[in-house]
Every structure is written in C-alpha cells, then in structure tokens.
Amino acid sequence: MTDLKIIYTETETKGRYAATQSGVKGAAEVTISKLSPTLIIADHTAVPDSMRGLGIGRALVDRLIADARAKGQRIVPLCPFVRAHAQKHREELDDVIQW
C-alpha cells in the first residue's frame, strides 16, 4: 500500500481521516469528535466496497492511534471497527484507549 494517501482535516470539534489509493475508486474514512484537548471519540469508520480487504481501515486506525499518542490524547472507541481493533490489541493500546 505504498500509494495509500491519508489526509487529516479538522474543525474545532470534529476530525476526519480520509484515505485514497491510486487506481482504486472511492475514499475510506474515520471520523472523530473532540471532547477536550486530551480526549477524543472515534465515532465512525467507512470503507467503500472498492477498498475492502486491502487493509485500508486498519491503516486509518493505525494513523488515528499514532496521532493520538503524539498529541497525548486518549481515544474512546465508540465506532465498532475501532473498538474491535482496540479490544484485539488491548495491552499494546492501553496508553491510548479510554474504556
């Protein structure tokens, strides 16, 4: 997935990671809500059919986690996709996931 491009955009209260890959139609996304400077909610993950099975959802969650760590934030995983990933990797994500 060397040609995977993830762009983060934000407003004062929301954030969105959007992933595109050359040669693949559509864009995948993870959206967040900002509760405070140190606490965010992962609300939603969407991966279009054209991108399923390529690991793009996982790449988005990995980027979300890396960014949250870098900013000293904790993530409340309300989104079922992010929650499943967090539960599967509970020990290694203990510093960044807020249960």
Automatic annotation (TrEMBL):
Transmembrane segments: none annotated. It holds the Pfam family Acetyltransf_CG. InterPro entries: Acyl_CoA_acyltransferase (IPR016181), GNAT_YJDJ (IPR031165). Residues 9-98 form the N-acetyltransferase domain. This is N-acetyltransferase domain-containing protein.
